[in-house]
Amino acid sequence: AAVVLIYTVAGGLYSVAYTDVLQATVGWTGCCALAFYMIGNSQNAPAPSIGFTIKLPDDDGNDVPYSYVYPDEATSDMYGGEKCAHNPENWCHNGSADVADNGAYPFGDLPVFPNQMTHYNSMTPFPNAIVFNWATIFVLAFGNLAALDFQARCMASKTPKVATYGCAIAGCLTFVVGIPFAYLGAITRVWYGPDSLRANFETDSCSVALGLPTCALWLPDEDSIIKMLTHEAPKFLGGWCLIGIVAASMSTCDGAILAMGTVFSHNIMRNLGAFLPFVSTSLVTDDNLLMMARAISVPFAVTAALIASFYRSSHSAGATGYLLIVAFDVVLASVVVPLFGCFYAKKPSPLAAFCAIIAGVSVRVILEFALPKDGWLIAPFPGDEFLDYGSAASTALPTWLDAPEELLWDPEAERCEQPRFDDWTGVDSLAAPIAGLIVFALVQHLERNGPVNDFAPDGIMVGYLKETQKTPEEQEAKEMEMRKLQGGADVGDTQKNATDHIWAEPEQVKKNETDEGYDEFLAVLGSKKDVASST
Does the structure show a pLDDT above 50 at 502? Predict the structure, then answer.
């Protein structure tokens, strides 16, 4: 944190840009190198489960084997399975203790589920957080448009074309780096997933969809990715990837610190006198703005370091991960709609933008507490896979073991009380900008013939003027010139009759005038007036 703060404060966007290039070259290439190595030298996802065999004493004290039942003969052939002892129509684990797993993937896992984003039951018997996944895509895609660190790089570009090309190239590189690295999640499940020897399960848990009366809830290892890099990957590539993770963190936080310090000093401190009469309006001037931005960056960096070090959360997205979600939600709910309105509305209204911000933030805050959220990020779709884990229901054997029926768990007789997942996280993130858009369009429509409220021309709510728009003073001067030119046509009847055909053409031009052609219109109108006077 100290290193990032020092070079960010010292060099501003220059140091951020140059260090980002270095960090990307050294770090992110390491992430790609490791990802491609692991993809090429290990399973991309867990294969169908091998299963296991347990031996339990019967009434006479003899050990009786009970084996894992394969879903089909093809899977059994993969592992040298054999006909089941108690149910010969099925195929079972061969009883070998040398090769076994937990039976978590009867049909195997996949690196990618093709219909995961279109069918809520595409991952049966596991639940699919399809609502949250779609919301995340929209939040990241549109919320990032208003991210200050991204905008700073665009504004610092020499030309708009450079900014456009830079964003397009960066987007393509994101796919190159992100997709292979995302595959490491599937590879990590091979080494530390529910079918691995390192897997841990919650004893007091049951699941009808999984056929488990107990030990149903898998407890993921929060440090599994770090353990894979340090224990399963080659030491050089694992260390290189760890450097890449640190580099990615540094390249993210330096831009955030710079943006927050600059915006806070320029937009807040510089206008503080407008809200607090006892604060001098000259607190921040052009001469000390740079020093103020550097000073403001220090408390932001310290606060960020303390939050990252000590903040803890029980949220399923993790501590700082949850804060990241909230940050993008706030941006999407508040300023993305006014940002689009500023670009695409012909005459963007500051009142419409302000009301859209208030509406979006209000809806987001209200829904944060009004919507059901159990912390699992899974919407309540139908099906047993969308039931939460219940407390242990029985000491009987799982339903997928080869055993006499009286020894197997009967979910109807010994019920597993499972509440349905009920988490609508993501709906609030999508509803907030929609509410802001409706309010923006409504206020913009109400102000189509003029502003509902005139803000002070030297205040903080002064409207944004595009290049084709004119200030109120320029607009007033334009109207006065028009009246003056039209008044010059009131001459004698002879002159009027002689010049009717001359004035007809500029009147047509006047009806079709635009801001861009106004100067040309005045030139034409002036020449016609001179001709009329001479006539």
Answer: no
